[in-house]
Amino acid sequence: MEIRHARHYEEIERFNTTELRENFLIESLFEDGKVNMLYSHEDRMVVGGACPTDSPLVLEDADTLKTEYFLERRELGIINVGGRGTVIADGKEFELDTKDCLYVAKGTKEVQFINGEGGNQARFYFLSSLAHAVLETTKLSIEDATPVQLGSEEESNKRTIYQYIHADGVQSCQLMMGMTLLEGNSRWNTMPAHIHDRRMEVYFYFDMEEQTRTFHFMGKPDETRHLVVKNEQAVISPSWSIHSGIGTGRYSFIWGMAGENYTFTDMEFVPMDQLR
Ligand SMILES: O=C[C@H](O)[C@@H](O)CC(=O)C(=O)O
Ligand SMILES: [Zn+2]
């Protein structure tokens, strides 16, 4: 898998567009019949996409992780952004419909991704972070996730945040994962912006038309940059960075975090007059 090292915020003050994209944008996760993964040194998060076709796909990369099996020292969160499919964790089958989530515990020796029959192709987006304890492998469908309403139509940021893996939901060691759906013509996410110095975050944008682009804002609050993002691309957000975006059309996104503090509300809002 591709490896990305962590970057200091002082470096990115000098980055051009290509350097910014090479370091923080993940351009292609989904490829038919493949599992694509990227290892980020930001809290050692693995970002991946599994797109099974005729045969099952297995989660593995012993060469990179240097462990006997993938989840020997890690936990995993999966959200299906395609048609129906199945994940098998050590022989136990979990059917995942669109926007359903599965947490897979540390110690699980084999994880397989299987495409559902008929309908749209299953597309499993996943994140894996380090884990210190064996918890319970748990499925959570979108209907059972905790919805949090934020924003307003007036500010073009009316959205519902579905929290799946977090302190009051599916339990994990440090991984937090959920999904944000924008309502009507709302196009802004996470504005007012925030940072959380104790956690990194990964954004995965999806449900976008081919020509739609999201302008994702990153950087220290007083030194912002942007990335132009298209459907099914992801952004790595270091703990010093804001993460916010506006779309030229409809989009949804999956956010995931890893790091020290496990409290969703451990975030500092950035006053508007600090943004540059
Ligand atoms: O730390 C939390 C994450 O950035 C997301 O939950 C934010 C988000 O989905 C939003 O405001 O739209
Ligand atoms: Zn955040």
From TrEMBL:
One of its GO terms (molecular function) is 4-deoxy-L-threo-5-hexosulose-uronate ketol-isomerase activity. Its cofactor is Zn(2+). It catalyses: 5-dehydro-4-deoxy-D-glucuronate = 3-deoxy-D-glycero-2,5-hexodiulosonate. CDD domains: cupin_KduI_C, cupin_KduI_N. Zn(2+) binds at H194, H196, E201, H243. Coiled coil: none annotated. Pathway: Glycan metabolism; pectin degradation; 2-dehydro-3-deoxy-D-gluconate from pectin: step 4/5. Keywords: Isomerase, Metal-binding, Zinc. Binds 1 zinc ion per subunit. Gene3D superfamilies: Jelly Rolls, pectin degrading enzyme 5-keto 4- deoxyuronate isomerase, domain 1. It comes from the Bacteria. Its EC number is 5.3.1.17. Catalyzes the isomerization of 5-dehydro-4-deoxy-D-glucuronate to 3-deoxy-D-glycero-2,5-hexodiulosonate. Belongs to the KduI family. This is 4-deoxy-L-threo-5-hexosulose-uronate ketol-isomerase. It comes from Chengkuizengella axinellae.
